[in-house]
Design brief:
The protein has 9 helices and 15 strands. It is α+β, with helices and mostly antiparallel strands and about 350 residues long.
Length: about 350
């Protein structure tokens, strides 16, 4: 049995289910399943035998020769019988994230209990591979909003809905949402800040990097901070999202503040946790919460042109640059959140 270079094991099991590196012998069954379930896939035409053989020869076979392939595909067995296939695709090795792909034998989708069981068993094994063997930060699903039982399985497996692209895909003549669920292995806890966090926010506000990237780089005085923070906490237009890790250590904060007819977002991360990929999760979860409360609003961010790390962060979190602006004498970009 062939194996991926980035994995030391060739078999991953949980109960009666097993994932093994994708077998060449399964390609024809997989083509039939894909053709019969084309409406739930990002596949626009029926696969021919020749196309499937070419795909396995030109794409799948080469995955086993690469140190960091862009996808890892597996055959899914129940009691040694093939019942599905899938894996981790669109792998980002730098940020250690990947999308989940999974498809079962077509008839198994008709029974809700079987469908949910297949997904939960599959996710249990795949989470172990992504976490214990590959040390990924997060994995996610990208699915059309036509299978409610999928969400039962995902939520039972600890996945959280992080984005919804409204009416983004046409299926059978109807516009449907695309829903993204994520599972973070270094999951953050999110709650609203309170008065007890005054000193923490003061420390973050006067962090050297934060001050350099702010539009007013002067040091903030404590009395000034206390008055401002208290006023904002009492404002119905300001939301302080505070994030901490599993050990309850504060990681960073996101503020969404409506003023001057604009809803503006800002983020800062504690120096100990920078560069660990938390920023995208923090921005997405904050925007998701806020825009679910105020669905007609638009969330805007202003970022200094020279602050390249934040420019990349907001772009990766689903913000698009709408214009070049000048803020307090600094050349800057205006970003707008385009999805949740």
């Amino acid at each position: 049995m062939r194996n991926y270079k980035c994995l030391k094991s060739i078999e991953f099991s949980d109960g009666g289910c097993t994932l093994i590196p994708l077998r060449d012998e399964d390609k024809y069954d997989i083509a039939n399943w894909r053709n019969s379930q084309i409406n739930i896939l990002r596949q626009t035409e029926f696969l021919t035998v020749t196309q499937q053989e070419t795909y396995f020869a030109d794409v799948v076979d080469k995955l086993f020769t690469q140190e960091q392939p862009d996808q890892l595909l597996f055959s899914f067995l129940e009691n040694d019988q093939l019942i599905g296939y899938g894996g981790l695709v669109h792998i980002d090795w730098k940020y250690r994230t990947a999308e989940i792909s999974f498809l079962t034998e077509t008839s198994r989708n008709a029974d809700a209990g079987v469908f949910i069981s297949d997904w939960t068993n599959y996710l249990s094994i795949l989470k172990c591979i992504a976490d214990k063997h590959l040390h990924f930060n997060s994995i996610y699903t990208y699915a059309y909003d036509i299978r409610p039982n999928l969400y039962v399985a995902l939520e039972a497996s600890g996945f959280v809905e992080t984005k919804r692209l409204k009416k983004d895909i046409e299926i059978d003549g109807e516009l449907k949402d695309v829903v993204i669920h994520s599972y973070n292995f270094n999951a953050l806890n999110m709650h609203f800040a309170g008065l007890s966090d005054t000193d923490l926010y003061y420390k973050w506000a006067n962090d050297l990097v934060v001050r350099q990237n702010s539009f007013n780089s002067s040091e903030i005085q404590y009395e000034q901070h206390v008055g401002w923070f208290t006023k904002k906490l009492n404002s119905p237009d300001c939301f302080f999202y505070l994030f901490s890790n599993q050990e309850n250590i504060p990681v960073g904060q996101v503020r969404i503040d409506k003023s001057n007819s604009e809803v503006v977002i800002g983020i800062s991360i504690d120096e100990k946790f920078r560069g660990k990929g938390f920023g995208v999760e923090m921005l997405n979860r904050s925007c998701y919460d806020y825009l679910n409360k105020f669905p007609k609003e638009q969330v805007i961010a202003y970022v200094k042109e020279e602050n390249t790390s934040s420019v990349k962060l907001f772009s990766k979190a689903g913000f698009v640059k709408t214009s070049d602006v000048e803020v307090n004498g600094s050349k800057s970009y205006r970003f707008k959140k385009i999805n949740i």
